[in-house]
Design a protein that fits this description.
Length: about 150
Amino acid sequence: MVKKKRDIPQSMRCQAYGHTRNYCNRNPACVKCADKHLMYNCPLEGKLGNAKCFNCQGNHPASYKGCISYADALSSETKSLFPNQNNDTYNEISEIKQLLIQSAKSLELIRNMLIEQNKLFQQQIQQINAMIQLLTKVIANNNNKNG
């Protein structure tokens, strides 16, 4: 028995779903930064913190399986795979796909919130370091006056 893959093919040339780079004639799109170049020419060089999805413009690489575009493509593929199934089965599959889409949206939201929280923590660390420097100067001045 041949086992079917569950993943949808994705072109590593244009980042679109439904075909591979071997059959892709579209303009290149970077999997890391969504610019119009191949991944091998990307200036980010592995810095995924600055990643941008070509398909949904989210803050993740275009190959991220939690992407809303991936969930949409997976949902479309499921509809084409089960055209003759009874409505109950199709409805159950549709519900599962909708839950997956909602989960992907939630994961993206959480990821964005964590990125923002990290930025705030970095700002707070800088402020605390500035306060420590000021306190060190005040203590040194007091020691000089009292010493």
